[in-house]
């Protein structure tokens, strides 16, 4: 008689940057550890082509069951005004959606554990009621996790706004954090964005364990610090399990534009192409986009650039998605003649490109990235050095760590008082990474980390061991 597989539930929030790594974790639990996984999806009355495409992928294994939570009617929930910011909107929708969690988990026959996302910690209370151990899967760096775990302490120690502190902020496990780099949500402690972040991070100690999408060799100081630092011992910190890097393995190439990118790459020399894109929501101002175009042109390097309609607020609500029909013709937003002058050297794609396949292609030699954590991991796993171009959320912190601590990126310089990075500086960094000495150094470092990432996930590697340790708790 066949023995039933152990059953766990995984609960991501709606953002693609969260859905993707949670789905990869779920697949790993099924494929490597023999679990049956219920993947709980928060939905709204607004359709999401990106979500559908991801969840209908042919690469989803049979024991991974997608369970859509009842849709939240976003028109009916109170979002105080039209200017409500991204995190507040996300957390409000999530809170509403999780009202159904207790009955969903009960109907599913009470899984052995629930793994939840940072912005869904209300699930801890439901799990407590149902006596289900609740774990958190944090899809950001170990350094950012150290910052989050320490935030309640900072909040009680500091009276003024953090951005007004005269010195960089000392957090155990992180290099001193410059106030300019601080995550958007802590730059004004009076608004809802901060309150939501604070609410969820204050609840981290309620988790039975925290899984982090990172690995020992990538962030030794942060991981050791969270696990051992006496300061963290005073803050009730659950066991931390570095289980990464879990990145998307198999991208569905849904349209001809996707295939065109890869066919174009096939014709380019090894390590010769710079890939530019800004995550699922990043956009540039018109002025910045123009400078980037002219800087790229001056650099004379090959490139694939995902061009979006410029906005004044980096990434504000402008979420573009895989598979969505593009109404925006990039020609309209680029300097006159740019496409003709760069024909053959560069390829401009509108809105979205198959990032993982591009980063894994031998012709790709550099990545100009907004430094979302998934993008950073995808670049490192494929051994591609980065130009760090942070826009929003915790990306400025990531950019500094990737540049100064991990050594796989360079950051363009911006003089005090400048609104944009100028074309000459862009030319300098692009050339530097693609053919200069600086590029050689970070390329060597990223290739080392590529090897170490693969080792960490091997069946005798640290990250594999870490996840095995957690799943053994669940199985027993
Ligand atoms: N992505 C992509 N094509 C694009 C832009 C983004 O496939 O043109 C994917 C990327 O591979 C990554 C995710 O979208 O898996 C973005 O996640 P990340 O954490 O880097 O940034 P976020 O979107 O959360 O800001």
From TrEMBL:
Any coiled-coil regions, as ranges: none
InterPro entries assigned: UDP_glucos_trans, UDP_glycos_trans_CS
Protein's name in the database: Glycosyltransferase
Gene3D superfamilies, A to Z: Glycogen Phosphorylase B
Keywords from the named record: Glycosyltransferase, Transferase
Protein family membership: Belongs to the UDP-glycosyltransferase family.
Source domain of life: Eukaryota
SUPFAM superfamilies in the cross-refs: UDP-Glycosyltransferase/glycogen phosphorylase
Enzyme class: transferase
Entry's EC annotation: 2.4.1.-
Pfam family name, one: UDPGT
């Amino acid at each position: 008689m066949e023995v039933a597989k152990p059953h766990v539930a995984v609960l991501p929030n709606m953002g693609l940057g969260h859905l993707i790594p949670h789905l990869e974790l779920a697949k790993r639990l099924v494929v490597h550890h023999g679990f049956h996984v219920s993947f709980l999806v928060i939905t709204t009355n607004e359709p999401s082509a990106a979500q559908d495409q991801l969840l209908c992928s042919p690469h989803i294994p049979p024991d991974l069951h997608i369970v859509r939570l009842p849709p939240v009617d976003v028109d009916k929930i109170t979002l105080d005004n039209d200017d409500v910011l991204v995190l507040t909107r996300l957390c409000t929708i999530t809170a509403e959606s999780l009202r159904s969690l207790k009955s969903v988990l009960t109907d599913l026959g009470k899984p052995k554990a629930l793994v939840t996302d940072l912005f869904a910690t209300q699930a801890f209370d439901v799990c407590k009621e149902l006596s289900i151990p609740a774990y958190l899967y944090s899809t950001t760096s170990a350094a950012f996790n150290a910052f989050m775990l320490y935030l309640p302490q900072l909040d009680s120690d500091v009276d003024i706004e953090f951005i007004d502190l005269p010195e960089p902020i000392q957090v155990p496990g992180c290099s001193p954090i410059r106030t300019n780099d601080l995550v958007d949500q802590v730059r004004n402690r009076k608004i809802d964005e901060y309150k939501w972040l604070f609410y969820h991070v204050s609840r981290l100690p309620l988790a039975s364990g925290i899984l982090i999408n990172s690995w020992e060799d990538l962030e030794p100081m942060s991981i050791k610090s969270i696990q051992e630092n006496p300061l963290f011992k005073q803050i009730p910190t659950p066991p931390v399990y570095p289980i990464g890097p879990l990145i998307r393995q198999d991208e569905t190439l849904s349209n001809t534009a996707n295939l065109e990118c890869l066919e174009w790459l096939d014709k380019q020399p090894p390590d010769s192409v710079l890939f530019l894109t800004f995550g699922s929501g990043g956009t540039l101002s018109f002025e910045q986009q123009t400078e980037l175009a002219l800087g790229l042109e001056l650099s004379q390097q090959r490139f694939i650039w995902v061009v979006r309609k410029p906005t004044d607020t980096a990434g504000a609500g402008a979420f573009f998605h895989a598979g969505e029909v593009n109404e925006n013709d990039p020609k309209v937003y680029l300097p006159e003649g740019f496409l003709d002058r760069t024909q053959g050297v560069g390829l401009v794609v509108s809105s979205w490109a198959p990032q993982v396949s591009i980063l894994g292609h031998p012709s790709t030699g550099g990545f100009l990235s907004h430094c979302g954590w998934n993008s950073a991991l995808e670049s490192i796993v494929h051994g591609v050095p980065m130009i760090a171009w942070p826009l929003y959320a915790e990306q400025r912190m990531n950019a500094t760590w990737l540049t100064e601590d991990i050594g796989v990126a360079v950051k363009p310089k911006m003089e005090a008082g400048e609104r944009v990075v100028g074309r000459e500086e862009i030319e300098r960094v692009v050339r530097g990474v693609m053919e200069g000495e600086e590029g050689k150094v970070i390329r060597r470092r990223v290739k080392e980390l590529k090897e170490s990432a693969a080792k960490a996930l091997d069946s005798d590697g640290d990250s594999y061991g870490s996840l095995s340790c957690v799943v053994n708790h669940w199985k027993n």
